[in-house]
Amino acid sequence: MALAQGKSYPGIGRAATPQEVAAWDIDVRPDFKGLPTGSGSVAKGQEVWEAKCASCHGVFGESNEIFNPLVGGTTAEDVKNGRVASLRPGGYPGRTTLMKVAHVSTLWDYINRAMPWTQPKSLTVEEVYATTAYLLHLGGVLPADYALSDKNIRDVQQRLPNRNGMTTAHALWPGKEFGGSAKPDVAAQACMKDCSAETKVASALPAFARNAHGNLAQQNRLVGAQRGVDTTAAAPETPALAVKSADAASPAPAEDVQALAQKNSCTACHAPDRKLVGPSWRDIAAKHQGKADYLAEKIRTGGSGTWGAIPMPPQPLSEADARTLASWLASGAKP
To answer: Class assignment of domain 254-330?
Structure first.
């Protein structure tokens, strides 16, 4: 863009207008540069939270089936000292946002630019102040009658439970302008011996899809790395293809399948009878009845577009586990 806007290339590009720059320049720094004028109360924040935030993050910031908790693990002593004690022994189950965050500006900036998930940047300045205030109230940082504003946010920074938990005593940035050391904190040397054998990553087609759209090897130009597999030939025998077809297998007991889904975090995005991030078990079973082989491949490879724009990443399940889940789904996902 810098080259395109240069005077040596007339007619290509143009300088951004002040209004266009302002629309993108919305970050708020730890020193609160960029913070807009405004305020919002804890009471107003509760209204916004229950309407736009609680569905993902829980009524009290404890989260629900999908996201990590925002609140928890901090004490009044942490607010006083500025260092969350439960981070040190590692005894607290998990890490909440208020346990880790060191700057109020981080909360304000992220809520402003990214929340709510379905409509980012849709909150007003008052709503962002109010939501930040309510979140800090849930964490015991602010009282219920508090109104957070650009005038008092620096005072609130001095009450953040882990405000002293961030260090710059390292060499992640060059020089000493951030108070760190100019000397790298690691001094490893690459040995370049006894290296592991190179892993070859290859794609694969399930048996039912081979040659479904003609021979792929004849549909690519003979240049570059992409050649296309000869789909008229039989697929090479592999452990995955040697396994008994999931379509022919009897589904495992529902309680075993549900335990398997819980173990592999499938329940973070799927519920038995309602949509979460992805479709419900019931909807998948209705759409793909009897298609266990297809579902097993989909679980392993992931994809998007069938149920909306949010993609499902490839799942690191074993072939056997994927087929167990797929058989259960293809047979109706009976509880």
So the answer is: mainly alpha
The DSSP string of 37-96 is S-EEEHHHHHHHHHHHTHHHH-TTS---SSSPPSS-S--HHHHHHSS-GGGTT--SSS--
How many C-beta atoms lie closer than 10 Å to residue 253's C-beta? 11
Tokens of 123: 């909150």
| Rounded (10°) angle between helices 319-330 and 292-301 | 130
Q: What are phi and psi of 296, to 5 degrees?
A: -60, -40
Identical fold between 18-157 and 254-330: yes
φ and ψ of 39, to 5 deg: -160, 165
Identify the CATH number of the domain defined by range 18-157.
Answer: 1.10.760.10
Question: 86 and 73 in contact (C-beta within 8 Å)?
Answer: yes
pLDDT for res 235: 61
Q: Are 140 and 70 in contact (CB under 8 A)?
A: no
Q: Which amino acid is at 43?
A: A
Rounded to 5°, the CA angle 31-165-96 comes to 100
Q: Stretch 302-314: mean pLDDT, rounded?
A: 77
pLDDT confidence band for 27 (50 / 70 / 90) = very high
Distance CA 155, CA 313 (A): 43
Q: How does residue 83 score in pLDDT terms, banded at 50, 70 and 90?
A: very high
Give which of 202, 236, 208, 231 is closest to 297, Cα–Cα.
208
Report whether pLDDT(161) > 90.
yes
| Banded model confidence at residue 246, pLDDT cuts 50, 70, 90 | very low
Which one, of 139, 152, 122, 141, lies nearest residue 35 by Cα?
152
